[in-house]
Design goal:
Elements: H1 13-22, E1 32-33, E2 39-40, H2 80-97, H3 99-115, H4 144-168, H5 177-192, E3 205-207, H6 213-222, H7 228-232, H8 266-283, E4 294-299, H9 306-309, H10 312-317, E5 323-329, H11 344-355, E6 358-362, H12 367-374, H13 379-386, H14 389-397, H15 400-406, H16 412-417, H17 423-427, H18 436-448, E7 454-459, H19 484-494, H20 500-503, H21 516-527, H22 551-557, E8 561-562, H23 564-575, E9 585-589, H24 600-605, E10 607-608, E11 628-629, E12 635-636, H25 641-652, H26 654-657, E13 663-669, H27 674-686, E14 691-696, H28 715-719, E15 725-728, H29 733-749, E16 755-759, E17 765-766, H30 775-780, E18 782-788, E19 816-820, H31 825-839, E20 843-848, H32 851-867, H33 877-883, E21 888-892, H34 898-901, E22 911-914, H35 925-931, H36 936-949, H37 955-964
Parallel strand pairs: 3-4, 4-5, 5-7, 6-7, 9-12, 9-13, 10-11, 13-14, 14-16, 15-16, 19-20, 19-21, 21-22
Antiparallel strand pairs: 1-2, 8-17, 18-20
The structure holds thiamine diphosphate and magnesium ion.
Thiamine diphosphate binds at residues 178, 181, 209, 211, 262-264, 299-302, 328, 330, 332-334, 338, 462, 477.
């Protein structure tokens, strides 16, 4: 293995030994025979695929394994005897001093060659064989036979659970073939490596391949943690007695699952940042996580998701040796082969090696060892290298005779090599991922690898054990039904003690408690610290600051021209100093600290860097220099919202997974939140993450110059659909403060599972003082901010300000109830002035802090009333508040109209909404607000048009106002412009 050697050898040492022991004497000797049988002249470059004898250590195409010439490197052996001398030297070193020494020498030679300007053959891949050779395999410490029986029983129940669920109702679905391929990978880890949660150890953290869940449930059933009734109700969570969720889901099964997966790619991404967060906790002295590992089981098809591979370089850069990826390469995804014409294992090896990971391939089972040992000319390895995945899949479904003819038959010497083996034996040549000893060896090496993360790339068969119904078939992913004969075959193959009479019912099987299997299973888990997965019932709480502690802070903002972003960031800076909660706060930012005015925090808290700061920062002479530190508190993630969100999830679930109530505050461009990483925000909710998302630079017209791609008018709409997200759109610093302190209280003092999403703006304006008694309204979603009475014209009006609109009976006009949020609330206030001063219309302005909260509670009451027709109807806060307000209702915000429109059903006479639907664009705020018709003038026109609609004024009044306020009635509609 490569670990601990302090450098990356050209080839893993195990391979090196093979290179040496099997390199043919005839290397490069001419003439060579190419695959078509034609001769190649000495001294001529060999055609692709012709280097039969060069195969090991050969520069190969990363996916096909075919030899390729290297730019600038001669593939012609101009002096075979010199070549032989070099090889003899190499052999001598290996035999007398060992592979490590040989590897070191090659490394030194490589360095020197670079210095001398010699082009070096580059290869990211190694031959298509196991990374760990048989003579480096540790002894398997377990009882192979009992473990095989346990695994067989787990296989059976996992299969039966899906088959039975689909007999009840064929729409239920579920997956058999994924766990069937992953069983050995999971079981070896469960029996020997993955540690459970104990009194003083919070266990390893495991991200299971989501749709292998039947196997995880089946194991928990044997452990006695899940009942037979629950197994029966797999995927029927609403059934009597309770059921099991389809995939890992802490919200639905809070004492079982810890890490939600199955949205392909998110598991691996979250696992990387989880491992990094564990180092962060360690480096900051918050918790000793040095013994914890993060395991992530991944599908090979899943590796096509950008999220799966997108952060692997971070894992290597941060030296995450606490992270183990296990990629289950069954060569298939849902529709068919992952790389029919290539080799997914080689491709992944290249990618991970290139990124700096320790890569361990587990391709062949022990039955191949003897054949490989005999492969002195490298013919077998060459054949292994050249066959593509689609063909390997074909071998799975064909008899041994086909393998003999098509795999070994490619070369007479290979045919000879297996002449002593029956067809049946050829069929039983296992793949590495189904061989516990090979898998054990890879895991054992991974545990001992220091300084880098490990990926184990294991070759398996999809639907292993399903026989003709599914094994290796393209349809296997969706195979959910087995008939009696197929069940019987499965039962027999895995030796499950179920009689022929019973087998058709696919009964679950659990050996008695005192059986060797159950005793062994329990003993192993006890030795490893307890059950996995499991999620703790209790978590610690904090004493959080009260609003009274922050009255002075709020007062300070009064009269200042600042933005709500500044307000929120200043509050964060203050909370970071709080004795009780300060150290738990994790500020997270994807390269936007300066945008949000967070740079003072660099000095105050430092930016987390595991290695500290190894350079003198360019701005070191300045007060607010870019300070990186090993115990830095800020996670400055660079330009990755996905990575930042993963850190948010790791920090936001630490209260449970680590028992330390970390408080993530993730601030980002609001456009790149729900819109870009919405699926991860779902994963955060699934995981019961807690914390603050601050959507900075919010508002389609407030961000102004940045233009469309940055101008967010959607995030508050997206947030509506996220059940545990409380979404706020405050306008003033006192509102932001009240909301954030409430979040602290609910999430960390009371232990409620919420994510607070707060849009904050970058427009500076004078902050008003906090009106008395508005706290409740701020948190519930709205409060009355101001009444503005109509001002009848006094004296002779000046030409510019004349309320010339002829409004009949001014005093009898209905009031306009104006609702606004965020930065547009100020336009609403200005509209109120316009209405009063120029049109003699009175209004009330409501500051709406959360359209979503208002609707949530209104819906709740409405539903209760529907179901309790004889009880006294409940009235929501929204209804109670609006009951005191009459007139016409108008709302405006810097978001699409759909956000305020949610309140329409509860607003007497309906809600007229102005909003920012359509494409954003670059300009200053004034023209943008006119374009989207959310400026004060348009809000005033909207109000007048509502008054006209109820007959309080004539349409001519509105028309005249449109002219007077300078609005072009035929201007483009922003919604479609
Ligand atoms: C983001 C996302 N897209 C699509 C799916 C649907 N899906 C579930 S499993 C699967 C195939 C997975 O193949 P692979 O990763 O190779 O796993 P295997 O079942 O072969 O072990 C697909 C496409 C999903 N769950 N998530
Ligand atoms: Mg697969």
């Amino acid at each position: 293995m490569t670990e601990n050697s302090g450098f990356t050898p050209i080839y893993p040492v195990g391979i090196m030994r093979k290179v040496v022991s099997t390199f043919p004497e005839t290397l490069m000797a001419s003439p060579e025979i190419d695959q078509t049988g034609s001769e190649v002249e000495p001294g001529q470059p060999l055609p692709l695929g012709a280097h039969a004898q060069m195969s090991i250590g050969q520069v190969t195409d990363s996916t096909t394994g075919q030899p390729v010439p290297v730019d600038g490197t001669s593939v012609v052996d101009s002096d075979p005897s010199e070549t032989r001398e070099w090889l003899d030297s190499l052999r001598y070193v290996v035999s007398s001093r060992g592979g490590d020494r040989a590897s070191y020498l090659l490394h030194v030679i490589e360095q020197e060659a670079y210095r001398l300007g010699v082009p070096i053959p580059f290869s990211t891949t190694t031959p298509y064989i196991n990374t760990i050779p048989p003579d480096r395999q540790p002894a398997f410490p377990g009882n192979r036979e009992i473990e095989r029986r346990i695994k067989s029983i787990i296989r059976w129940n996992a299969m039966a659970m899906v088959v039975r669920a689909n007999r009840e109702d064929k729409s239920i679905g579920g997956h058999i073939s994924t766990y069937a391929s992953a069983a050995t990978l999971i079981e070896v880890a469960m029996s020997h490596f993955i540690r459970g949660r104990g009194d003083d150890f919070s266990g390893d953290q495991v991200y299971f391949q989501g749709h292998s869940s039947p196997g995880i449930y089946s194991r928990a059933f044997l452990e006695g943690r899940i009942s037979e009734k629950q197994l029966e109700n797999f995927r029927r969570e609403l059934a009597e007695g309770g059921g099991l969720s389809s995939y890992p889901h802490p919200w639905l099964m809070p004492e079982f699952w810890e890490f939600p997966t199955v949205s392909m790619g998110l598991g691996p991404l979250m696992a990387i940042y989880q491992a990094r967060f564990n180092k962060y906790l360690q480096d900051r002295g918050i918790k000793d996580t040095s013994k914890q590992h993060v395991w992530c089981f991944i599908g090979d098809g899943e590796c096509d998701e950008p999220e799966t591979l997108g952060a692997i370089s971070l894992a290597a850069r941060e030296g995450l040796d606490n992270l183990i990826f296990v990629i289950n390469c069954n060569l298939q995804r849902l529709d068919g082969p992952v790389r029919g014409n290539g080799k997914i294992i080689q491709e992944l090896e290249g990618v991970f090696r290139g990124a700096g990971w320790n890569v361990s391939k587990v391709i062949w089972g022990e039955e191949w060892d003897a054949l490989l040992a005999k492969d002195e000319k490298g013919l077998l390895v060459k054949r292994m290298n050249e066959v593509v995945d689609g063909q390997y899949q074909k071998y799975v479904v064909m008899p041994g005779s086909y393998i003999r003819e098509h795999f070994f038959g490619a070369d007479p010497e290979l045919s000879e090599m297996v002449a002593h083996l029956s067809d049946e034996k050829l069929k039983k040549l296992r793949r590495g991922g189904h061989d516990p000893e090979k898998v054990y060896a890879a895991y054992d090496a991974a545990m001992k690898c220091h300084g880098k993360p490990t990926v184990i790339i294991a070759k398996t068969i999809k639907g292993y054990g399903l026989g003709e119904v599914g094994e290796g078939r393209n349809v296997t992913h969706q195979q959910k039904k087995l008939n009696e004969e197929e069940l019987r075959a499965f039962r027999t193959r895995f030796g499950i003690p179920i009689s022929d009479d019973e087998v058709a019912k696919a009964p679950f099987y659990r050996p008695p408690d005192d059986s060797p299997e159950i005793k062994y299973l329990r003993e192993r888990r006890e030795a490893l610290g307890g059950a996995v997965p499991s999620r703790p019932k209790h978590s610690p709480l904090l004493k959080t600051p009260s609003l009274d502690d922050y009255r002075a802070f709020i007062e300070k903002s009064t009269g200042r021209e600042v933005s709500t972003t500044t307000g929120a960031v200043t509050l964060m800076a203050s909370l970071l100093k709080d004795k009780s909660i300060g150290k738990y706060i994790v500020p997270i930012v994807p390269d936007e600290s300066r945008t949000f005015g967070m740079d003072p925090l660099f000095k105050q808290c430092g930016i987390y860097a595991h290695g500290g700061q190894l350079y003198e920062p360019v701005d070191s002479d300045q007060l607010l220099y870019y300070r990186e530190a090993k115990d830095g508190q800020i996670l400055e993630e660079g330009i990755t919202e996905a990575g930042s969100m993963s850190s948010f999830i790791a920090a936001g679930t630490a209260y449970s997974s680590h028992g330390v109530p970390m408080i993530p505050i993730f601030i980002y461009y609001s456009m790149f939140g729900f819109q870009r990483i919405g699926d991860e925000i779902w994963a955060a909710m699934d995981a019961r993450a807690r914390g603050f998302l601050l959507g900075g630079t919010a508002g389609r017209t407030t961000l102004a110059g940045e233009g469309l791609q940055h101008q967010d008018g959607n995030s508050q709409l997206f947030a509506m659909a996220y059940p545990t997200v409380k979404a706020y759109d405050p306008a003033f610093v006192y509102e932001t403060t009240v909301i954030m302190l409430d979040g602290m209280d609910r999430m960390y003092a009371k232990g409620e599972d919420w994510i607070y999403y707060i849009t904050v703006y970058n427009e500076n304006y004078e902050m008003p003082s906090m009106p008395p008694g508005c706290e409740e309204g701020i948190l519930k979603g709205m409060y009355k901010l101001r009444d503005t009475e109509a001002k009848p014209p006094q004296g002779k009006p000046s030409p510019s300000k004349i309320p010339q609109v002829k409004v009949p009976q001014v005093k009898a006009l209905p009031r306009v109830q104006l609702m606004g949020s965020g930065a547009i609330l100020r336009e609403v206030l200005r509209a109120a002035d316009l209405l009063a001063e120029q049109f003699g219309v009175a209004s009330t302005v409501w500051s709406v802090t959360s359209w979503k909260e208002l609707r949530r509670e209104a819906q709740e009451c409405r539903r209760w009333n529907m179901l309790h027709p004889q009880a006294k109807p409940r009235q929501s806060y929204l209804e109670q508040t609006l009951a005191k307000a009459d007139g016409v209702f108008v709302a405006a915000s810097d978001h699409v109209r759909g956000v305020p429109e949610q309140l329409d059903p509860w607003v007497p006479g309906g809600l007229f909404v102005l909003g920012t639907d359509g494409f954003g664009r670059s300009d200053t705020r004034g023209p943008l607000r006119r374009h989207f018709e959310v400026d004060a003038e348009c809000i005033a026109i909207g109000s007048l048009s509502r008054l006209a609609a109820v007959g309080a004024i004539g349409p001519d009044v509105v028309a005249e106002a449109i002219t007077r306020l300078g609005i072009d009635p035929d201007k483009v509609d922003a919604a479609s412009a």
